[in-house]
Every structure is written in C-alpha cells, then in structure tokens.
Design goal:
Strands 5-12-11-6-10-7-9-8-15 form a nine-stranded mixed beta sheet, with helices on both faces. A four-stranded antiparallel beta sheet has the order 2-3-1-4. A two-stranded antiparallel sheet has the order 13-14. The chain is rod-shaped and about 165 Å long. The longest helix is centred in the N-terminal third of the chain and has 54 residues, at about 135-190. By secondary structure, the chain is α/β, with parallel strands linked by helices. It has 19 helices and 15 strands. It folds into three domains: about 25-50 and about 245-270, no CATH class; about 55-230; about 275-295 and about 310-390 and about 405-510, 3-Layer(aba) Sandwich (Rossmann fold). The protein starts with 13 loop residues before the first helix and ends in a 29-residue tail after the last strand.
C-alpha cells in the first residue's frame, strides 16, 4: 500500500522531486516517441538527400625564396612566411582560376572554391588542401590541381618580384655605364695633374657602383624560387566522408529525444490533471490510502478483487480501521469526483468484504438513486439471495424500502446490501428520517456502514450525505481527474460538515473501462426456475464460492441461501410487509445461508 501523508513542514527532497518529475514526463510517451521519430527522419533525410560525399586531401610544405638554401644562416623561414596569408592565397580566385584552366574547365572556378578547404596544422609550415566532391576520382584530381596551382602561383609571384628587381637594377646600371665610358674618354684627353686625379676618382666610384649592381643582379638570378614541396598527393578516397547514415540516425535520435522531452515538459506544465500522488495530496489535503495495481491486459474485471488487488483493498481497510476519525463513527462514503462510479462501486464492495473479514457487521448502502444497479452486478460475484429478491420491493415512500439483501463474499463472510431504487425526489429520499436511521446503524458496536453515492461534481447527492456519513473516501484516476476538481470536492465536503479521509487511486486504460457484465444478459433465454451452474472463474476474490447456485422462481416458499435473513430494518415505511412473495414461505434454518459475523 502506498500512503502519502501531507507534510507542510518539510517538502520533498531534491532527488525525489526530480524522479517524480521524470516519471510525470514519461506519461507523455506519445510526444517523446514522436520527437524520436522526427529526429530519425531528419537524420535519414540529411544522409540520403545530400548524397555520398568524398574528400581527397593533399599537403604541401611552404618555403620562402633564399639565396643559399643550404646555408646554416640562411634565416628563419617561419618569420619570412606568413601562414595565414598563404592560406588566404590558396583560397583565392587566382589559384582556383589557374586550377580550372589546368582541368580544362574555366567555368568551374566557383565550384572549386566551394568544395575546397585549406587548413594549417598548428606550429607547422604545412598547408592541407581538402576537396569534397560526389566522385572520389574527381575529388582527388581537383585537390592535386589546386595544390599545383597554388605552388605555381606562388612561384610566379616570387619570379615576378625577382624580375622586377633585376629590371630596376638594370635601369640603374645603364646610365652608370654611359658615365663610365664618358669618363674614360675624358681621362684619355687629360694630362698629368689635378684634373686627371679627380676624374680617375670619379671613374673609380662609378665602376664600383656598376660592380655592386651587377653583383645584385647576379644574386637575384641565382635565387631559389621553389615555393614548396608536395608531401602528400591526393588519392581517390575509398569511403565517403562525413558522419554517414548510422551516425546521422544516432544524432537525429538524440535530438529527437530532446525535442520529445521538451514537448512533454511543455505539455506537463499546461496539464490540469493531477499528475502524481503529491498533487492529489495537495488538492485534497488528505493522504493517499492506496493505489490499485493496473489490471493486466485481457484480464476480465471482477467486482470482488483477487490477488494483489484484493491485498491492496485489505491494506486500505486496515488503514481506515486504525484512523481515529473513522473509528469513532464507522461510516464511510465512497465517491468519485466526476463521471461514472464503476470503480467506486468496486471499491465499496471490496472494502465492505474486507471489513467483514475483520469481524465487523457491515451494511453496504447503495445511495445511487438515479441509475442503481449494484444488486444486479453482485449476482455475478457470489451473491447468495433468493430468486424473488432479484428486483427489491419498493415502498410507497420510495427509498429506502427496508429490504436488505445478504450477499456472500466468499471466504470473507457475508454482508447486507441495501439496494438503491429510482425515486422522484432524490434529495428528499437521501435526507429523510428513514435514511438517517439507516446510516445510524453504525452506532451499534462492531458495525460499519459503507455508502456508495454518485460522483460529487455530477450530482449533489454525496454532499447531502456528507454530514450524515462524515468520512469520505475519494476514488479517482490521477491521469483523468483535474486538480481543480479535487480541490472543489474537498471544499464541498468540508462545507457540508464531512471529512475527506483519503484517496484511493487507480489507473486503467480507456479500452479496459468496461462495466462488470450483467448476469441477466448471460441468463437471457433460460427458465427462471431452472438450475444455473456458475463457472469457477466467477468466484469472489476474497474467498471461494460454491460451484452452483439455484434460484427458485418467484413466489416459492423456499430460497437457496440467505432466505431466512431477508429482514427489514427498524424504520417504519408504508412498504413494510410488501417485501415480496418469498417472505411468506418458511425460510428458517436454511443451511445454505453463509454464517454472518
């Protein structure tokens, strides 16, 4: 049994709160699954729509132009080469245009630039050319072409600088040569003296300058213009590059889970239903006395529970028996917040059987005076009563009529049922003096009165009974009931003078919400006086019943099981003495009647 007590002093721990929120998110499995499917579809579309892509890679080592490449003091090449500038040059239009011309497709410049990626590994003079294309051979050819185009472009730039410098030196050298020749003619015409010495000195300076320029031109012509070396040649890749279909599906699934969880969280935020036991406790300000296990698929519903469900009802009954508020009055009103009362009816019957097991004399009152039917349902749950009591007699004043039907709950024992009947004025019948005296039977020692009423928010019947029955047990499905409805139930019950003892939670699939089959449908076409065997599957959950049950025809003097205990309560009604023709027979000492405790 799960009991959640409201605690205003101490809230839930952080791990418990997170676990509770996660469990609430898992309620919206449809949204989470939809997110996963959407992510998988997106990953598959990305992998298949883009097609296979192949990436070929080549690498070159960049070097600067030097006069003596083998000289140990030739300078630091890392300072002479800017790798950032070289990377931008490799991505330029000039390199792409040269590569496109080499490939024989001058109009392919933009496509080459789109598929090219140039990177520089840290602390290296290496440029890595990566080209992506749908064909592995095309990718390798383009990568090699771009690499060679870069090297050729860099060599041409270096050679162009050298040629410009040589041309500048030669332009400076030409007038110096003319001046040297002119000075040589002047020297031939001068005699010994000061003028000759001056001319010779000028000629010597001019010749020295010409020698320097010639030396510079010679050095420039001897410069090594090698731009770099290809250290890795691109080859056609054997496999497609990129994440691939499996990885994209995995990424899509992960993203889809995130989308699904976000959608579930948004749905959770705006969900008005009582999502968890904590919400039920806060709305009712009463403990959760128990949670019924979810029924197995294709398992028939039984009015008297079996197995784990029966044990859960026993735990709830013991929990109520030791509750101080219930122990004083021993009256219990079982209601649902809204909608049908099928589960509330099952809870009232099973709790009644559990109180019988505890040695109490229990009276189950069906206060549903609009659509009564509990007596018919109990016939398929080991009810032992005479055939004439199939339709309880009604007095002139409506309900209650004074008729009590003994019901066999198997090994649990027996309890009396006051069936409901349709009346014109429900409020007058529920608040009448005979009804009040009926509920007052709980004042006797060892007696418990369990009352089943329609849903609180559907009709005011339960509110009219709240001050007479006092203790209220709310039966609800937290997935279907709204928190506002539970709070309103608490306010209405408290305002009417009653007390909410607790809540009984259940959870069922919508496809399983079916009424317990009526025995009348199974007996259609049979004689009313014939012997009707009962299948073993219809035995009660808290005990075992007889294999067969015989119902005599109406008006017979004998009744199988419980005929002697057809009795009337102590209130006076106009229908007293008109309980049915079976009352006129001798029903004393019937051995088939179950022993009452």
């Amino acid at each position: 049994m799960t009991v959640v007590q409201p605690d205003a002093q101490q809230g839930p721990d952080e791990p418990d709160l997170l676990r509770d929120q996660f469990r609430q998110l898992l309620r919206y499995r449809v949204l989470i699954v939809a997110g996963v499917v959407l992510g998988l579809l997106g990953g598959a579309w990305t992998a298949l729509a883009g097609g296979a892509a192949y990436t070929a890679t080549s690498e070159v080592t960049v070097r600067s132009a030097t006069f003596d490449p083998f000289s140990p003091g030739g300078g630091n090449p890392e300072k002479e080469v800017s790798m950032g500038s070289e990377r931008q040059t490799a991505l330029s239009n000039a390199v792409a245009a040269r590569a496109a011309k080499e490939l024989g497709d001058p109009g392919r410049v933009e496509r080459l630039q789109d598929g090219l990626q140039v990177t520089n590994p840290p602390n290296t003079l290496v440029l890595r050319f990566s080209y992506t294309d749908g064909s592995p051979r095309t990718a390798a050819t383009a990568a090699n072409a771009l690499t060679q185009a870069y090297l050729d472009n860099r060599r041409d730039q270096t050679q162009s600088v050298i040629d410009n410098m040589i041309q500048g030196y030669e332009e400076q050298l030409e007038p110096l040569k003319k001046q040297r020749d002119k000075l040589a003619e002047q020297i031939d015409g001068l005699g010994e003296g000061r003028a000759l010495d001056t001319t010779l000195s000028v000629q010597s300076g001019v010749i020295g300058r010409i020698s320097e320029l010639n030396s510079s031109i010679t050095k420039l012509k001897a410069v090594d213009t090698t731009p770099g070396f290809v250290v890795r040649t691109a080859t056609p890749p054997a496999a497609a590059s990129g994440p691939g279909l499996p990885l994209l599906l995995g990424l899509g699934g992960a993203v889809g889970i995130g989308i699904g969880l976000v959608a579930a969280w948004v749905r959770l935020v705006f969900d008005p239903t009582a999502r968890s036991q904590s919400d039920v406790v806060r709305a009712l300000r009463a403990p959760v006395l128990g949670t019924l296990p979810r029924p197995r698929r294709k398992q028939p519903r039984r009015l008297l529970a079996q197995g784990r469900v029966a044990e859960e009802y026993r735990s709830i009954a013991f929990r109520l028996a030791y509750d101080q508020g219930f122990a004083e009055r021993r009256r219990l009103l079982v209601v649902a917040p809204r909608g049908p009362i099928d589960t509330a009816a099952e809870a009232s019957v099973n709790l009644t059987a559990c109180f019988v097991e505890m040695g109490r004399d229990v009276l189950l009152v069906e206060a549903d005076l609009r659509t009564p039917g509990l007596a018919h349902k109990l016939r398929s749950a080991e009810g032992v009563r005479p055939g004439w009591a199939r339709t309880p007699a009604r007095g002139d004043n409506g309900w209650p009529t004074g008729l009590q039907i003994p019901i066999d709950a198997g090994e649990s024992g027996a309890f009396d049922l006051v069936p409901g009947s349709k009346v014109r004025n429900v409020a007058r019948a529920l608040t009448s003096g005979p009804a009040t005296r009926l509920f007052a039977e709980a004042e006797s020692p060892g007696t418990v009165v369990v009352v089943l009423a329609p849903a609180v928010l559907s009709y005011a019947d339960a509110i009219a009974l709240a001050d007479r029955v006092d203790g209220v047990l709310v039966v609800c499905d937290p997935r279907e009931v709204r928190r506002d409805d539970l709070a309103r139930v608490r306010e209405l019950v408290s305002g009417a003078g009653g007390t909410v003892l607790g809540a009984l939670l259940h959870s069922e699939d919508s496809a399983r919400r079916r009424r317990v089959p009526d025995l009348r449908l199974r007996l259609r076409g049979r004689g009313r006086g014939a012997e009707r065997p009962r299948p073993a599957a219809d035995t009660g959950g808290t005990g075992t019943g007889r294999d067969t049950a015989t119902e005599p025809p109406p008006g017979s003097g004998t009744a199988t099981g419980g005929g002697a205990d057809q009795r009337r309560v102590s209130w006076p009604t106009a229908g007293e003495g008109a309980g049915g023709p079976g009352e006129e027979g001798d029903r004393s000492g019937d051995p088939a009647r179950p022993a009452r405790r």
